[in-house]
Amino acid sequence: MDQKKIIITVDEKLAEVRIDKAISSILKEFSRMNIKQWINSGNILVNQEKVEPKTKLIIGQIVSVEPIFEDRKETVSEAMDLSIVFEDDHMIIINKPHGLVVHPGTGNMEGTLQNGLLHHHPALSKLPRAGLIHRLDKNTSGLLIIAKTNQSYNALVSDLQERLITREYRAICVGVMTSGGTVDANLSRDPNNRIRFKIMNQGKRAVTHYRVLKKFKNHTFLGLRLETGRTHQIRAHLSHIQYPLIGDPLYGGRFFTPKGAKEDLILKLKNFKRQALHACLLSFNHPIEKRNVKFESTLPTDMESILLEMSEGSLTKESANKIVYPEAKV
After folding, report:
1. How far apart are CA 287 and CA 90, in angstroms?
2. Is residue 145 part of a domain?
3. Are residues 225 and 317 in the same domain?
4. Burial class of 313 by CB neighbour count within 10 A (0 to 12, 13 to 18, 19+)
5. For strand 141-147 and strand 277-285, is the pairing parallel, antiparallel, or unpaired?
6. How far apart are CA 71 and CA 174, in angstroms?
7. Looking at the DSSP assignment, which residues form a beta bridge with residue 215?
8. Whether residue 178 is found in the same domain as residue 317
9. Residues 177, 88: one domain?
10. For a FRET experiment, which of 102, 154, 230, 258 has its CA 20 to 30 Å from that of 62?
11. Are 153 and 231 within one domain?
12. Residue 104, in any domain of the structure
């Protein structure tokens, strides 16, 4: 698809606005992610000079935009049972089961959530990654936001970048924590293992807040909130402070038999083949209506079963799901 260069003269409305936000507000048919990529690649120039996405514009400057249209392999639409928590004309909230990959990738082009979303709402093919605002690892369960229009996509991506979307998780880790806290440690891809991330000074800043919800003999049930959303952030951070998630094949290390544990619990732990992590809450402003919306998801049965076995009768199914993250500001 050919597209002539777009020329924009900065006026009072655009003055002192970041260039990525300013161009996104004008070219609404493109995502803010597209805009940032074009700025970084030099396809968007200010007075014929390359700038950064955060650069603020000045009245009278000339911005030239040369859109890039990539030839990408089309993601196939597939019929799929989707657990839809909420849907309106602007967005969808999905409760993803563990084991389901979110985006197609090398050797994994079919059977993903994105394939199913395109069948459910074909118009999503016009949006980046079928409107998915964020992602969860294959074996992490829980809530995801999907935008249905360019306007809602841009608004939600912007809110995510500005840390205006609250994301809360539940996790079961190895070891007994004494109290909650915060992990503020930069993450970067491990140069010795490209599928892992590790703590590195030159990495991107990553911040995870955690609270103890229930202590057991050898494990801890946690509530976590993300301040940033890096790949594998919770998994890498908890491993870093030596409280890895149970069942985590990448960051958890070798299985150990909990001291004094009953045979039923040992068997359940051995058969738990995914990280014990669930995205249980999303809270944010509706992208169009601007009212606050909140969505919750109860623990999946596999994590719930582990908790009930660990509690030895001190915890019920109802109380396990009623445990809430403290509302105190973190």
Report:
1. 8
2. yes
3. yes
4. exposed
5. parallel
6. 46
7. 220
8. yes
9. no
10. 154
11. no
12. yes
Give the residue from 161, 186, 205 where a domain finishes: 161
Tokens of 309: 């076995």
How far is it, in rounded angstroms, from Cα 293 to Cα 57?
A: 33
The pair of structure tokens assigned to 189 is 């891809």
Domain that holds residue 155: 84-161
* DSSP three-state, residue 56: strand
Domain annotation covers residue 37: yes
In contact, 39 and 20? CB cutoff 8 Å: yes
pLDDT tens column, 54-106: 999 999 999 999 877 554 457 889 999 999 999 999 999 999 999 999 988 76
- Active site members: 137
User: Which residues contact residue 53 at a Cβ distance below 8 angstroms, ignoring those fewer than 6 apart?
Assistant: 18, 19, 20, 35, 36, 39, 40
Hey, what amino acid is at 198?
K
Rounded to an integer, the average pLDDT of 261-282 is 94
Q: For residues 173 and 48, give the distance between their C-alpha atoms in angstroms, rounded to a whole number.
A: 53
75 dihedral zone (left: phi>0; alpha: psi -120 to 50; beta)? beta
At residue 77, what is the residue type? S
Examine the domain organization and report whether 188 and 252 are in the same domain: yes
pLDDT at 37: 86
Beta strands in the chain (DSSP E): 6-9, 44-46, 49-50, 62-65, 84-87, 91-96, 141-147, 166-174, 181-184, 187-189, 197-199, 207-215, 219-226, 277-285, 292-296
Whether residue 318 sits in one domain with residue 200: yes
